[in-house]
Amino acid sequence: MTTPLSSDTQLGWQSPPAPINQILDAPFPPALMLSPDNQWLVELERSPLPPIAELAEPEIALAGFRINPNTNAPARHSTYRRLTIKPINSSATRSLDLPLDSRIGFLRWSLDGQRLAFTLTQESGLELWVVDLPSGTPRRLTDPILNATYGSPYKWLPGDEGLLCKVIPADRGLPPVASPVPTGPLVQENLGRKAPAITYTNLLQNAQDEALFEYYLTSALEHVSLDGKRTPLLSPALIDDATPSPDGKFILLTTLHRPFSYQVPASRFPEKVEVCDRTGKLIYQVADLPLADDIPIKFGSVRQGRRRVNWRADVGATLYWVEALDGGDAGRKVDKRDALFELEAPFTSQPTELWQSEYRFQHITWGRDDVALVWEWWYDNRQQRLWHLNLKAPNSDPKLLVERNYQDQYSDPGSPLTTPGDYGKEVLRFTPDGNSIYFRGRGASASGVYPFLDQMELATGESKRLWQAKAPYFEQIVDVLDDQAEQFITQRQSQQEPPNFFLYKHNSPSVVQLTDYQDPAPQLAYVHKELLQYKRADGVQLSATLYLPPGYDLNRDGALPMVFWVYPQEFKDTTTASQITTAENTFSRPYGASVLFLLLQGYAVLDNPTLPIIGEGDAEPNDSYVEQLLMGAKAAVDCVVSRGVADPNRLVIGGDSYGAFTTANLLAHSDLFQAGIARSGAYNRTLTPFGFQGEQRTFWEAPETYIHLSPLTHAAKISKPLLLIHGAVDSNPGTYPLQSERLYEAIKGLGGTVRWVELPLEDHGYRGRESVGHVLWEMIQWCEEYVKPVVS
Fold it and tell me: Are the beta carbons of 275 and 253 closer than 8 angstroms?
């Protein structure tokens, strides 16, 4: 018997039926950390879904993010509640002696892997703790003085030298209080300069916000020794980051300064990048960057000036950075986009240019003087290149190792494996002869997804497969423990077995199981999971994951009501759009407000039916978005109906964010579905006029596309029931709650069937225990009402 939907403006929290409630409260398998020296496993017990009261803790929105003013930490910071230590070659485990239900966060290994630092959240702030792994004894190093309002509050120094910490200034005083009497109007102006910006949220709005921003983000920099002794290094400033050089002799300091902006977040505020010595004395100014509120919106555009400043990981104290050669504007036609530079201590010589890229610099992994790997990418053609740089021979040409379409997952070489180098920083792991490196990858192919471990020869770029997962498992390399790759750790799972960690040893007849995590939702143990493959009308290959309820029998149960959960993706060519990239052998259990919970109510679920939106050549994908969307949706419906598992008269379309936008469009432009569920979506693209999702044209460059794609424009055609759910404090760019409110008002005013649920205190995704339970209740009730009538 179902509870009727209520039309009251204020509805108390509702709970989903059993056993969903019990699964929501079941312990979640721990997270796992492997020490840099590969000697220790640390299990982190995850906190359950937090009560709504925890989301109601104070928070302040400042310059694109939210902080908890009581703790000087990010609002809604995810934490763990218990730590367990286990030597990798022993079955003995021990839990740290910490207060019950601690809120543990910001975990960082020491460079030698023998210590683990972390924070404990108290009512008044974050304490710094450290545990020596061999003894397993935790100790508190500071009172709750850390300032984590903007980034990690500490970094390890080399050896036994302790940690570099951002702390609350001792004389900070009380936060500024705004006068209730306005001192004048708020005025902004632009004098002919182009300064486009996407629809950021939580931005500064007035002088009071600026004062609060400075108050909460201002930190002093201190050295905290392993016995808790505090040594001041720098006077209070708006510290973004403070990173010790690998040899510990210098500090790379990034600070923010005025003028601030009401249009862009703090990451684009003016910033100064400097090198100081260990006493805090200024040694070298790397950059003083102005406010970056004029970065073009074309994908691949970047800030002008020296950016991505950091230390080389393989030497003691050498800076590197990247500078745009195109003014940061991806729309300019130039031969070279970026230049990579380095500068050795004592930072008195001229910087050395290491490389120029044709595409945009992506990232670099350091190895040794003659080997660094650098990636470049470009959005318009979806290309990515991997280069081998020989810094010992600066006049030699870089060697191209990989060139590929980055959406082509079949050709993905994976990621290089790293290991702590001479200074404890992660560098490339080489084979014993130094001629090859290792890559681990996901292993997508036409025959399935089977992760792998490869060895790549640097001289030729050719790879040799050393290991690959086999059915019925989805098994990924976690880390290689030696240069010969004779010992490595994997995480293994199958449709029936939850993820666990295993140790492989060369010439050992057996694999050592390191963990034994159990199924958190055994009620779903006999769910049928299957990867479907089918084609849409124009021949593009599509796929989807079909879930059928536990114990389902086609002959006995027949066609079921089915929920389609969708999220489209843009592509530049048919080949990559057709690839099968879903792993069939994964262990699938619902968490949070997952649609898979509906399996326990007798519904089938078609999860992530691929809906590629393709724009080949000069064509823009979104110019034919609706037509391609309809082809993909119809192909998915035809597939499951023809198999006899889905009743064509009892189909629900749903999705989150861009999937919610898609849901509303499918209801407006097709009769395939009888109801819809749209969570945290955007429905009026004129409210995101400087681009959205994969669209980089502005509204004024493609007005017809923006208007045609907006479900609000077609609200009169949404005749099937639509459930709208939205977090009241959604901070995702473009999906502010107003989007759902306006679509609700439009459908309501036009006489449609629509329900709008706004979740107090919730963001783009839903975290509160009461909220998650209520969302599942709403979804079940909606489906029961419109596609699975109650039989009296």
Answer: yes
Q: What is the pLDDT of residues 502-526, one digit of tens each?
A: 999 987 888 999 999 999 899 998 8
Catalytic residue IDs? 657, 730, 764
Q: How many CB atoms lie within 10 A of CB 370?
A: 14
User: Residue 36 in contact with residue 479, Cβ under 8 Å?
Assistant: no
Sign of CA pseudo-dihedral 103, 104, 105, 106: positive
How far, CA to CA in Å, does 75 sit from each of 55, 64, 104, 485? Answer: 8, 12, 14, 42
| Inter-residue contact 561 to 783 (CB < 8 Å) | yes
Beta bridge partners of 445: 448
Which residues, other chains included, contact 290 with Cβ-Cβ below 8 Å and sequence gap of 6+? 270, 305
Q: Which amino acid is at 316?
A: G
How far apart CA 102 and CA 27 sit, in angstroms, is 16
* Type and span of the H or E element at 215: helix 207-217
pLDDT at 99: 84
Angle of helix 625-642 relative to helix 658-669, nearest 10 degrees?
A: 80
**Taking all residues of the chain, what is their mean pLDDT, rounded to a whole number?**
94
Residue 122: its H or E element: strand 115-122
**Per-residue pLDDT for 248 more than 60?**
yes
For the chain, percent of residues with pLDDT exceeding 70: 98
Cα angle: 235, vertex 238, 244; to 5 degrees: 70
Cis-peptide, bond into residue 259, ω within 30° of zero = yes
How far is it, in rounded angstroms, from Cα 150 to Cα 134?
32
Cβ neighbours of residue 8 closer than 8 Å, sequence gap 6 or more = none
Q: What is the spatial distance between Cα 755 and Cα 308, in angstroms, rounded to a whole number?
A: 46
Q: Which amino acid is at 695?
A: E
Helix (H, G, I), strand (E, B) or coil at 23: helix
Q: What is the pLDDT of residues 138-147, one digit of tens each?
A: 999 999 999 9
**Please, are residues 35 and 133 in contact by the beta-carbon 8 Å criterion?**
yes
Burial degree of 350 (CB within 10 A; 0-12, 13-18, 19+): exposed
Q: How many Cβ atoms sit within 10 Å of the Cβ of residue 468?
A: 14
If you average pLDDT over residues 60-89, what whole number do you get?
93
Split at pLDDT 50, 70, 90, the class of 1 is very low
pLDDT for res 790:
52
Query: Do residues 676 and 655 touch, judged by C-beta distance below 8 A?
Result: no
Output the CA angle 420-423-429, nearest 5 degrees.
30
CA distance 539 to 532: 16
Neighbours of 642 (CB within 10 A): 10
CA distance 783 to 383: 43
- Token duo for residue 473: 């498992």
